[in-house]
Amino acid sequence: MATYEGYCVKCREKREFEGNEVVMANGRRAAQGTCPVCGTKMNRMLSSKT
């Protein structure tokens, strides 16, 4: 697990979260994890590897 910074829609704050890197159906990379405060799922789109 790596640490990422993302926006929590429920808290309406930018927060750091621990998450896993996944590849979405369209081939883009994203980080998925949970908000450490409220427990809501958080996503962060990552740059593509070159």
Describe, in plain words, how this protein is organized in 3D.
The chain starts with a strand and ends in a 5-residue tail after the last strand. The chain has one domain (2-45). The chain has strands at residues 2-8, 13-23, 29-34, 41-45. The protein has 50 residues and is mostly beta strands. A four-stranded antiparallel beta sheet has the order 1-2-3-4, with no helix packed on it.
Query: In angstroms, what is the radius of gyration?
Result: 11 Å
User: Residue-averaged pLDDT, rounded?
Assistant: 93
**How many DSSP helices?**
0
Distance between the termini: 22 Å
**Secondary-structure element order, as H and E?**
EEEE
Q: How many runs of DSSP E, i.e. beta strands?
A: 4
Provide a quick synopsis of the model.
The chain is mostly beta strands and 50 residues long.
Name a few traits of the molecule.
50 residues, 0% helix
Describe the secondary structure blueprint for this structure.
Layout: E1 2-8, E2 13-23, E3 29-34, E4 41-45
Antiparallel strand pairs: 1-2, 2-3, 3-4
